[in-house]
Amino acid sequence: MRAWARLPDEELLQKRFCDLKLSIERSPLARHVRRLYGDLERRGIRTRPHVWLSEEWFSPDGVPGIAVPFYLAHPRLERLERRIMHEAEGGNSRGLMRILRHEAGHAIDNAYRLRRRKRWREVFGPASRPYPARYRARAGSRRYVQHLGEWYAQAHPTEDFAETFAVWLTPKSGWRKDYEGWPALHKLRAVDELVADVRDRPAPVRNRTRIEPLDEDTRTLAQHYRRKLAHNRQIRRGLADELLRRAFTQERPRRQSMKAATLLRAQARPLTAAAARTLRIDPYSVAQVLRMLIERSEELHLYVRGNQRDARRYSRWMLERLTGLYSQGETPHLSL
Predict the structure, then answer these.
(1) What's the pTM value of the predicted model, to 2 decimals?
(2) pLDDT digit string (tens) for 272-324?
(3) Structural domain of residue 240, as residue ranges?
(4) How far is CA 11 from CA 1, 16, 243, 331, in A?
(5) Would you call 208 exposed, middle or buried from its count of C-beta atoms within 10 A (0-12, 13-18, 19+)?
(6) Where would a tag sit more exposed on the chain, N or C end, judged by fewer CB atoms within 10 A?
(7) Are residues 63 and 77 in the same domain?
């Protein structure tokens, strides 16, 4: 056992990534990478994306490889990830293979420069399209496959391809039957055609570049989690603004229209109590989120539109949704 694996969380967080001396070959990840290579071999794809450890999941543009988060290389680090972030993305075998197959889609796209092909662009759209900070998914759309969840294929053409590739690559996925009658079947057939055209060919892009590899990362785990938690808070604040703008309006409908902040303050007690009961958490946590909503409503100069009963109903739903998200991302009492 590694010496750092026995340290309490507060001491482990002070360790630098490069000092952990982790490797994929000596970790549980190795068999999952071999399994991915087996999937590619069965499909006649010669390229084997190289895999390295980093801070997060990603496959960089122009690199036929996959970065895997460090915590999947050791059970002790996975426990730390779960304690701080309340989840470990890819922390079970099924979830890990889903993400690996998705990232393999990016890697194979890069290896064979598939996005440059006319067929790719016709089916998935231009890869040069700006990547959105947020996207509004159409939950009922059958134009996209369903793989990772959150309707991720709808985020960008490159994600659409990677998700479609992952479904196509999964052994015994039965995609022809599962997506029969869906417009997404056209995309799955396009992946089949694109791969058939490069099958058994060496890839033109074969670099082994590693972006932000763990063995060169001098940040401490505390610095990593501090930044990650701050990023998550920023995302949630953006979601709060989006929901507030849906519920209220910046254009005052009438002279006597109530300010959104005034309504939220007036309903603070029943809203907090209802959300706490529904979510089964302490009212204090709910009150903190409600206070943030009130402050944002004031800064955005929002007013109630329509009747107050509907505004109260939506406010409760919004408060419960945001409190649920915030409670999942609370920071434990650690020395970050």
Answers:
(1) 0.78
(2) 999 999 988 888 888 888 988 998 899 899 999 888 889 999 999 999 888 88
(3) 221-328
(4) 17, 11, 39, 16
(5) exposed
(6) N
(7) yes
